[in-house]
Amino acid sequence: MCRLSILVPWWNEARSFEDTLVSILEHRPQNAEILVVHPHRYGDPYELRNEVRFIQCAAKSELELINTGFYRAAGDVVHVVRCGLLATRDWTDHAAAQFERPAVAAVAVTIVGIDGVRRSGWQFTRGGKLHRLTSTATDRIASRCTAPCIDASFFRRQSVLDLGGFNPEIACFPELDLGIALSHLQLQCMTDQDGELRVSVEPACLTDSSQISEALEVLYWQTRRDRSALRIGLSHLMTVAGELVLGQFAAVIGRLRGWRKVDHEVYLDRIADAQERMRDRVDPQDQAVESDPSLLDSDLADQSHRAA
């Protein structure tokens, strides 16, 4: 069984932080370490330092706390639990067990909202649309999952480090950016409905909602070979047209900003660097994990030709 690190990024939610931490300690998995990464002083009034690793760091955002936690964690698998979620009995068992398969790099755990809806990970379509996977108690989630929701996500630590951590440039959906990159390394994101966390207080948004369309557009274009408008996918064109018809002009403006912002070559370099790190760890007699050839082969060949 892979060793598990449970990471609680504590930004500024004192009450919800305590509720979350208490629930984790009450249902603590065997041999799992608990890390709390925070930017402010903490006096440890409950004397938990023998049970919890408190890591203070000078971070400018909650995402920086999460990245710090991944670098400092000792486990093979890191489970992020944001403040406002409550752990339940044996909630990590099945999700952690899925990492016994080397191809699994992420698992989306089930989150039961205040409204009773069971939500899992994200699905990002080829047309640039984002869907949250949901189910009922009897209807299991069967759709393909692009990435877990960062609020309660499991990631293989080394895979995240290979990609340089969560990308702060995609602050709206850093887990989605990472999930897409993992898929291009032929690594999988799975869903888990056997364990669940419950929402006591909705976790705060990591960024302003006005940036969502911009982030989705960056994620869409950075995974394509050609940024030319003539090569735009029909499904994506229909998505943007639908926003225009509905009068969602702010969303369209955000998409235009995202289209101008994306740097396709930087994304390809990130994938290539991760692939090289993965090869360095593989025994020479084993077959190295390769990136998605449909995405990378021609682009990397073009870069090598230009470098030569």
Summarize the structure in words:
The protein has 308 residues and is an alpha/beta fold. 37% of the residues lie in helices and 20% in strands. The protein contains 10 helices and 10 strands. The chain has helices at 14-26, 62-72, 93-97, 157-162, 174-184, 212-222, 234-245, 249-261, 264-281, 293-307; strands at residues 4-9, 33-38, 53-56, 77-81, 85-87, 104-112, 118-124, 130-135, 152-156, 188-199. Strands 1, 2, 3, 4, 5, 6, 7, 8, 9 and 10 form a 10-stranded mixed sheet that branches. Helix 6 (212-222) crosses helix 8. It is globular.
Task: Give the tags.
alpha/beta, 10 strands, 10 helices, 308 residues, 10-stranded mixed beta sheet, Spore Coat Polysaccharide Biosynthesis Protein SpsA, Chain A
